[in-house]
Amino acid sequence: MKKLFASLFVLLLLNPYTLLAEEEPLPPAQAFPMTAEASDANTIIAEWKIADAYYLYHNKFSFRSETPGITLGKPVIPAGKVKKDPYFGDVETLRGTVRITLPITRSNNEASTLTLVARSQGCADMGLCYPPFEQTTQVKLIPAAVKASSDPLKAITELGNNMGLEEEEEFLDPDKAFLLSTRNGDQQSLIAHWMIADKYYMYRDKFKIKLKNAPEGVSLGKIDMPAGETKHDEYFGNIKVYHNAVTVQIPIIGDLQGKTAEIELVYQGCAEAGLCYPPQFKTVTYDPQAVSTVSTSESSPAASAKMADDGELSEDEQLIRMFKGDNLVAILTSLLGLGLLLAFTACMYPMIPIVSSIIVGHGHKVTATKGFVLSLAYVLGMAITFGIIGAIFGFTGKAGNIAAQMQNPWVLTAFAGLFVLLALSMFGFFNIQMPSAIQSKLNEVSNKQKGGSLIGAGTMGVLSALIIGPCGGPVLIATIVGAAASDSALLGFLYMFTLAIGMGAPLLVIGAGGGKLLPHAGTWMDNVKAAAGIILLAVAIVFLERVLSSVVFMTLWAMLFIISAVYMGAFEALKEGGSGWRKLFKGLGLIAFVYGIIILLGGLTGARNFNDPLHGSRLLSSGTMMSVATQGKQPAYVEFAQGKKSVVKGGLTFIKVKTVKDFEREKKAANAAGKTVMLDFYADWCTYCKQFDDYVFSDSKVQQALVNSVLLQADITLQDSEDKALLKHVDVITAPAILFYKTDGKEQRKQRVLGLMKADEFLNRVNKSFN
Fold first, then answer.
1. In whole angstroms, what is the distance from residue 212 CA to residue 284 CA?
2. Is the C-alpha dihedral spanning 199, 204, 206, 209 positive or negative?
3. What domains can you pick out in the chain, each with its CATH number?
4. Does the reported pTM lie above 0.70?
5. Whole-angstrom Cα Rg for the chain
6. Which residue, among 99, 34, 111, 98, has the nearest Cα to 71 in the 3D structure?
7. Is the pLDDT of residue 634 over 50?
8. pLDDT for residue 399
9. Burial of 238 by CB count in 10 Å (0-12 exposed, 13-18 middle, 19+ buried)?
């Protein structure tokens, strides 16, 4: 048992770092980048530069032309190597550079470009196989021979076009052709991203990046430019260029001492129509204190969303901005105050009997000083646990999606099992003690306290950090992001440690008074320990909510109430002359038993919230309010969802979106019809998301307020690359998160909903967003 406890404790401390270190597969576009060019008037060469440790299947290629008048012949695919595949047996695979020849037949000699769609399928050596995917590219065709025409005027026009005498094209300004944006990257780096307009490209070898102004001792690290695509230039031969977009990470080496650095970016590009721009010089600023900085050379909806100032940020996002300041005392003071406010949330209440049981369980008279010392050991154990987590994120510089990372079923089950073991210890089934050799030393330090109570209190504080962690909500997430942005293990530790001290401050007061206010003898101490054991079992069930079905989850809650009622003597006869306390416990036991039965009935008939066990139950379905979807005019969220993949949550119909492309397509369609848009991020492991479904989206006033809106939902349960790309696209950390977009496509960022919210407050956000 001691070894099991130690193993689970090590898992608790090491798990966040382990999860962060896990290797992630590349998206298909990066694992299998494709280019294509015409080698002559009747032949196309498609080329893949496959990433190391990835491969494509030889027999999974197919091609099609989306240009009218051009058809493709049979592709010529080079031979590959035979691989033993666990699913397909012996298969032929391709690695490295792959060139496929495609003959083309023209019935339309006027076409100047070919829209080529290539379908393929591949795998990574790490054991992941991608579903078949398509890649689309535009191929500039080599003109076919000009044939004689019966119309002399038309023949002259065609000859002039082929000689480059067509009507002059209007070219874009370079800042629009090559739209630049920058933001802070992981560790100490700057991410520069260029959006390249259609029919434009940038030269790979023309990029020059240098440090222009920075503190002494600071320099730029090695910059790895993306591979690019091969293009045949009539003057320079085969060159490497970028189409569509290019992203460059610029490492910054050395101590910036809290100051900024100026970086000069030099780049050059051309239009396919024949115009090449002079080199462009841009100076951007890197601010290490910023959680996320973005600058652009041209305004755009995406850029506008990320360049929001403090007045356009939601309250939750303004918490993150707090860490941009360089006044450490002000930051720590703010965190202490925020922690003190969190101390009065519902999740902190179970801590009170736990601290009381530690003090009362000491076994002899406890002075105010001793009670304070015991509670201080408990609070410090909790705060040090928070501090270690903050140090890990400060050291790695990656906040990531901590809520999602900690929702692995195995991790949740391990935590739940740990709390069950602690509960059984409270019930007296066994005692958890330190090894005797260590305990003897601790006893000396603790003035020979019975059972090593200081260490026991500290250990309970460590475990209790898991209970109150989820209650931190946006404040905890903001603190973790601030810790990661600091790039300092020390600052990360201080941020999280200070927040936890604020949360534990009221427990110090309770501990100091425990020696005077709590009785010190009799069976009352056993009752307190039993109550603490019940609370620990309840916490274990809360952890399992992300893993279990609603029926099993509600059944466990029902069992907890019913069995507790039995132990409280709900069905035992009262002895003549029994004490008033005995009668009180029996009455409370009967109430707990009845409530447990209600939870069981609610869970078996569709309810999933033990706090409101009949909400959503089919027992009350006859009295359920009719959704606005059936009243009068059909709502926009129902009309737009017809014929699309959708899901109904709380009476609202959401169109399901997965990728950035899905989201932008649906938003554009809704805006074109004059509709506003609401985007909801959901995950199966997100308990707050389910409360939105049950209590917010089911509210008739909320449904009425959204009647003219198109509702989109992104399910990020899997946390795959597409989920992460969409989260990054809209600058969201995790679920629950709800965003509002007006008919012009602009987000009402100040009204963002991050974390749980009641229906009336959510309705206020909707009304402010959509007037």
1. 9
2. positive
3. 1-26+312-547 (no CATH), 32-162 (2.60.40.1250), 174-307 (2.60.40.1250), 549-624 (no CATH), 626-770 (3.40.30.10)
4. no
5. 32
6. 111
7. yes
8. 44
9. exposed
